[in-house]
Amino acid sequence: MFEKKLVQNNAAEKPKKIIEVFSEREKYIPEVGEQLENKRSMDIEINGEKLSIDYRELSVAEKENRDGDPVVLLPGFGSGWEGIAELGFSLACEGRRVILLSLPGYGNSSDPSQEYYKNDHFEHEAQVVQQVIDRVLQGKKAHVIGHSMGSEVMASVAEKYPKNVSSLTLLNPAGVNKEESPIKLATTFLASGAHATMEYNARMFFAGEKDYETGLYAHIDRPKSPFDKERIGQRLAEAEKLTHGHLVKKLNNISAPITYVSGEFDTVYPSGTIDDESSQLHRIVQSVQDSSKIEKSVMARLRHNTTLAPDEITAANIDHYLTVAEQKNEKERKNDGLT
Predict the structure, then answer these.
(1) CA–CA gap between residue 20 and residue 208 (Å, rounded)
(2) b/e string for 228-255 if b means 16 or more Cβ within 10 A?
(3) For residues 74 and 146, is the Cβ–Cβ distance under 8 A?
(4) Fewest C-beta in 10 Å: which of 4, 226, 251, 296?
(5) pTM, to two decimals
């Protein structure tokens, strides 16, 4: 199943395969589009501060695997749920129930006080995610997936609230390197984003995706910019926190299955090779106490923005490893005599 799904990453077959995917999925856009337009928010409290969180729930009734655990999907630096909606749609088409949310200070969620973000950790952000999981899923576990900065937030969720978590997926993870320059990091993010935009536009033209993309994004409102002047202080604080390399410490304390997914051409946080002890991939694998708990995937020719087209490849890849995690969890329950 895995090899068949990932054949879309073969350049010789991509145009035909991609167009086939769009033709098959296009009929689900109205269903998911209605869900994207269905405005949802919840009031939460962090250290006595009341905040409103903007979120969405996505699923495709015809496809949904009700035996599989739902997914909570968190975007990275500079993005609310709107920036990861395309990947959310693709995961829904893979049969997953998907929850997208915008952290405080992103999208249409509340802007938090400085007390929320002026610190050396992402624990407040993890509390936000935990409260959303508790309220929306009402005790059911979820696969938590974080892209870039979202990986460190979701690692905090998996570390602090293990009863909520079926597995953790680190998608192009940030927060691994110590003593980075926040300015250099921000510049690298911008350069990578510009490159990804050019590739994205070319793909829209040559791969026949334009109508498909237009149809999906027609259902997504443009939210408040994460770089409005009243939000810049929070963005600077986040960039500073990402330079401390806290992610690897957290992974050592996580009991749930972990999946590392990156792009071969990620220039923001290159994966490197497992044999290179200084590489991100090697350091992350070494930080997990039990090597049987972690799966690894570096996707050919993809960059840092694996949440955008070809997001259908990323979604198929992630869904495969979520199933692997569920099998691991079931085996562990049997070994513990719980089933």
Answers:
(1) 10
(2) eeebeebbebbbebbbbbbbbebbeebe
(3) yes
(4) 4
(5) 0.90
